[in-house]
Structure formats: C-alpha cells, structure tokens
C-alpha cells in the first residue's frame, strides 16, 4: 500500500477524504469518506509512524491512528429541490416489505433526477433511490421509517456528486405537482407473503355479504388470502372465496 494508491482508490469511489492506518496485526488499511467524523481528534504526527508497505519512505498511520488526506473535491449532497421534486429524507426499506413497490431499470445508471423522471412518466409521485443503483417508485411509503440522512451514504451510480440511498435505505423525493393519494383507490403493493390487490371503497348504505371462516376450525384448508371484501381487481376469481 502507498499513499498514492490509497488516494486513487478513494477518489475512484467518489470520496474526497482518504485515510491510512494499520490493523492490530500491522496490516495496512484504507479508509474513505466524504468528511471527517465528529469522533476524530487530531494527534501528534509522531503517533502516525508506521511506514507504508509499498513505500517505506512514507508513513501510513499507526494503530488507531489515521493519516488523512483531502483532495479538495466537494462532498456529495442531497439536492433540496429540482424541478417539481422536493427532498423528503432518508427512509428505511427491506426486501420483504418494500417501502416503494415499483422498481424501474434506468439505462445508463441511476441518478436522483433520472429516477424521478421515470417515476413521473409512470404516474408515481414518490421516487426513491437505493444502494446507489436502484430506482423505486410509488404513490405512498409502505411502512418505511425516517432515518438519519447520513444513513443514505452511497453515491449514485451515474453521478457521484449526489446520494442514492444505501443498503436498505432510500433517498426519497416527492413530486409536489402530483395529486395527493386517495387511499380508496386500488393500489398494488405487498405485505410479507401477501399481495394487496385492492383497498375497499365506501359505497354508502350498500352492503355486500361476506363469508367469515374460522381458519382454526378447518386446518386442512390452506388459504392464500388474508381477508376480502368488495373491491376491484382485474381477476376477481383469484381474490374471492365462493360461499
């Protein structure tokens, strides 16, 4: 390891700070970041006295001591506003219960602008970028919780000057021109192993008979539907149980 190799490695990943230190077994270690963390404290240069493995004439930090270099490049940012889209923050996501249900492939790599544009073109008012390479769209957030902005620390695949979420983290933007969501509309989404095919709409005084089944009393029957009532679907036979 050399200082030049460390700096080049971090710069290639879009990082403006690079650091060299050593593990407990005295193996060299490379650290990259967009800024120095609040826990960092300056110490005397004599404490960073370990020679670099690839260049004995240079020093590569020490145990629990990091030689830090800065290349002057500005750190990535979350744009507060672009076009009709407004930054809403970093939100949690998971692979079992997605916070946004529609994934869209972006030719040429993901940026927040490209993702938002594709979401808008497909009539979605919320866009989310994840893991630097994924674009997700939706009309509302499905259970995603607000996280610290710093949790969304991966830069976008096609633009290292902006953040695109992280593992299980979404950088969320909302289209202020999009109509507010009516929760009575049919919405496609997922919940664990169940797919929500419709949300019921109030039809005034009209009632619809629903058959109630005690699943515990018929253990030999395996139902794939959690609950049903009058709703909308392209294929009612797949969601209604005959009485």
Automatic annotation (TrEMBL):
Entry's localization field: Membrane
Membrane topology summary: Single-pass membrane protein
Gene Ontology CC terms: plasma membrane
Keyword Transmembrane helix: yes
Keywords: Glycoprotein, Membrane, Signal, Transmembrane, Transmembrane helix
Keyword Membrane: yes
Pfam families linked to this entry: WSC (PF01822)
WSC domain boundaries: 1-72, 84-176
Organism superkingdom: Eukaryota
Name of the protein: WSC domain-containing protein
Organism, as annotated: Laccaria amethystina LaAM-08-1
The organism's taxonomic lineage, starting at the top: Eukaryota, Fungi, Dikarya, Basidiomycota, Agaricomycotina
């Amino acid at each position: 390891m050399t200082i030049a190799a460390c700096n080049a490695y971090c710069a290639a990943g879009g990082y403006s700070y690079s650091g060299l230190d050593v593990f407990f077994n005295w193996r060299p270690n490379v650290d990259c970041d967009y800024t120095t963390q609040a826990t960092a404290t300056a110490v005397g240069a004599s404490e960073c006295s370990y020679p670099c493995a690839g260049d004995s004439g240079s020093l590569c930090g020490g145990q629990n001591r990091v030689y830090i270099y800065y290349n002057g490049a500005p750190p990535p940012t979350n744009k507060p506003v672009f076009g009709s889209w407004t930054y809403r923050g970093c939100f949690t996501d998971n692979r079992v219960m997605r916070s946004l249900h529609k994934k869209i492939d972006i030719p040429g790599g993901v940026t927040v602008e490209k993702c938002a544009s594709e979401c808008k073109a497909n009539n979605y008012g919320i866009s989310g970028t994840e893991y630097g390479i994924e674009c997700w769209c939706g009309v509302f957030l499905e259970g995603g919780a607000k996280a610290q902005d710093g949790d969304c620390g991966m830069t976008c695949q096609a633009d290292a000057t902006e953040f695109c979420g992280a593992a299980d983290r979404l950088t969320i933007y909302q289209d202020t021109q999009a109509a507010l969501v009516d929760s009575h509309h049919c919405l496609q989404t997922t919940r664990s192993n169940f797919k929500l095919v419709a949300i019921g709409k109030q039809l005034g005084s009209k009632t619809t008979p629903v058959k109630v089944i005690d699943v515990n009393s018929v253990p030999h029957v395996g139902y794939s539907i959690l609950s049903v009532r009058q709703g909308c679907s392209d294929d009612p036979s797949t969601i209604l149980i005959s009485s």
